[in-house]
Amino acid sequence: MAGSFGYNRNEIAEDYSSSEELVQILVNKVARGGNLLLNIGPTADGRIPEIMQQRLLDIGNWLKVNGEAIYGTRKWDGAPAVTPETTQYFTRKRKDLYLIITRWQDKPIEVKGISKTGCVTMLGYEGKIKCNISGGRLLITPPTITPATSPCNYAWVFKISNCL
Prior knowledge:
By secondary structure, the protein is of the alpha+beta class. It has helices spanning 19-31, 50-66; strands at residues 74-75, 88-93, 96-101, 109-112, 120-122, 130-134, 137-141, 156-160. Helix content is 18%, strand content 22%.
């Protein structure tokens, strides 16, 4: 979570990755076919420092909403290459594709290589999601969300059903 492998009493809060950064690391690893081993270093007396506890709780809360896009998934072979600027990640499970965006955008999101779909939903969001398929690409129009309707604070997941 910070720079060292175990507990380091000299590390300060700024040395730790934020909860958002840790979720983004998780998404990046899983979307590329890997898994995340997150080291938690207890203090000499066996306690888990509060900052680590809070990060774990935040990751757990994100997974409560979006875990379907992580657990039991595989990488999608049709996904574009991951670069340092990547904000769209993909995982797949059976016939469903999950698009995970790490930066919210109000303009339509294009997914190439999709020619059919059952429906598009956003995990944890109750409203309808508008989408269009044309010429082997899917356009998803993100909903207008507010703090009251946003299912999470970062890394939002769109489920594209029955498209694979």
